[in-house]
Amino acid sequence: MNDVSGWAARARGLFSDSKGPWGPSGGTPPPGDTGGNGGEEPPRPGPASPWGTQGPARPAGGNPVSSLDVLIARSRARFGGGGGGGSGGLGRRSPSPQFLVWGVALLVLLWILLSTFHRIAPEERGVVTQFGRYSRTLGPGVGLTLPSPIERVQKVDVENIRNIDLGSVGGETLMLTGDQNIIDIAYSVRWNVRDPELYLFELQNPEQTIQQVAESAMRAALSATTLNEAIGEGRGDIEARVQENMQRILDTYRSGVAIQGVAIKQADPPAAVNDAFKAVSAAQQAAQSDINQARAYALQLRQLSQGEATAFDKVYEQYRLAPEVTRRRMYYETMERVLQNVDKTIVEAPGVTPYLPLQQSRPPAAAIQDPQAQGTAAGGAGR
Amino acid sequence: MIAAILRRPILAAMLALLVLVTILSSVSIVPETRQALIVRFGKPDRIYNRYRPSQPIGGTGAGLAFRVPFLENVVWIDKRVRDVDMERQQVLSTDQLRLEVDAFARYRIVDPLRMYISARSEDRVGEALRPILGSELRNELGKRPFADLLSPERQGAMENIRRGLDRVARQYGVQIIDVRIKRADLPDGSPLQSAYDRMKTAREQEARSIRAEGAKQAQIIRAEADAEAAKTYATSFGKDPAFYDFYRAMQAYQRTFVDGGKDRPTNVILSPQNEFLREFTRGGGR
């Protein structure tokens, strides 16, 4: 019992200390008076008070009755008297402990209210655990639970599709393909939560797990394809395979995660061999242009041969009607045209060897260009 | 009762506090994610929320756990799937090629008691499993040629590794769910460089063969066209080779002397015996 009273004394000091910031002002405890602003005596200036004359003196430790006793008595009176604030039997007005109690009560009430009503957003599910045990999942809207220490709600965003980027587009993420080539790959995985309970309770580290599984599935998919496929048209196939594989693995972990899609953002040969790959596409272009040229030649030749053959056929038809005449006509016409343009020398006397001035036979260019001279020469010779 | 409390409020408060502390320390909340091992004076006594396969969530025994305060302690053990990430390992294949492998294993503590006795904490289990995973991986993959290392899933190697690791992990009360290779890379330096060289030369070879193929096709296309043209000519001209000879000669004269002689006039020396000059020399004396 002695022990208890000692504790009580200590507690008393504690309570009186916690009365307000003014506390035991200035070391000299002022005599008990009515605290607050209802004092009959004028406020005494406390010499050592940091608040100067502003602060009214407080009933600190002056009365032997502990603040707790006062509080209890006061509340008893209050409950009895229907809440008449100042009409306490003791006539002391020290409202702060009272406010404390009411404040605490209010806080508790507020706490209970806040932890009972839960607003679940449309994209969320609220997973309710009762003393740690999973009890139910709340859908969107307002969900009711027991107050906080009993039931807790963990909100999980299930609609939002999250994105994990793997392999940086800037740097190089190299992987080996099935034909032992190296590919530089960047991809992203889109996922969301399918089962919030599983998602919360089954995996220690969901995001890291998804990332590791993605890397593993991508490596496995690439090791089953060739480099050319991975760079070219095999992409969609790889994406589908990675997605399927990831989903299967994550399901064996009971992860509650749905893989929505895998997108390969980049699949290139590594920078070290890129030039060689460019050379291949250059070779493809060159080969194609070779073939194009050949086709053009073939087309031209075909048309030309058909044209010539048809022309011959037409002439031959006419020739057959009158062979001899046509033949001679053609001969003369051609000769006419031929000999019109050439310098002609006719040597008649047998045994005369003409002196051929070969240098002169090539007149300067200006002479050739002169159609007048040529025309007259040819005309004269023709007649 | 109330009167007694009011008479000795301090005492009542103290008692209430004591009761509260006792209740609080005798009750623990076991969440779904954890297994609670109750240890009495260091001796494991019982387990709450122990993992059992195929139990639905909410029916696993999570909830309140009771213990005798001050005598019994709770050891918390993770119930979820955990992972151990291996450091990079260099694996030597049977054909003496090297590959750097990154792997991870997923495990779950299925026997908390055994785990507590053999390793004390979850983190130490991971530490213990990591080197074993590495050596299992090296042993199993080292039996294979390099080409098989690239997709060990297909040959069941990963399942062998999982089984081997699981055998060891059972001693820690741990079940290995899955072992996977995350990355498999050629080591830096000469292996990587020679792979690059091989890729480069393969591309060069491809480039050359593409060019050659293109040239071949072009030549074939030309030859076919030539052949077709020859056929066209032959069918047409073959009807009267003699006339063709004459016709073509006329064309040749025309092209050589008229069309081709425009910029360089030709000198022709004619003998009067020339066919063209026949009438010239005969002088109309027929």
From TrEMBL, chain B:
Stored InterPro entries: Band_7, Band_7/SPFH_dom_sf, HflC
Database matches in CDD domains: SPFH_HflC (cd03405)
Subcellular location: Membrane
This protein's record includes keyword Metal-binding: no
Pfam name, any one: Band_7
Residue ranges of every copy of the Band domain listed in the record: 25-199
Record's bilayer topology term: Single-pass membrane protein
Keywords: Membrane, Transmembrane, Transmembrane helix
SMART domains membership: PHB
PANTHER family: MODULATOR OF FTSH PROTEASE HFLC (PTHR42911)
Function: HflC and HflK could regulate a protease.
Family (UniProt): Belongs to the band 7/mec-2 family. HflC subfamily.
Protein name: Protein HflC
Species this protein is from: Sphingomonas astaxanthinifaciens DSM 22298
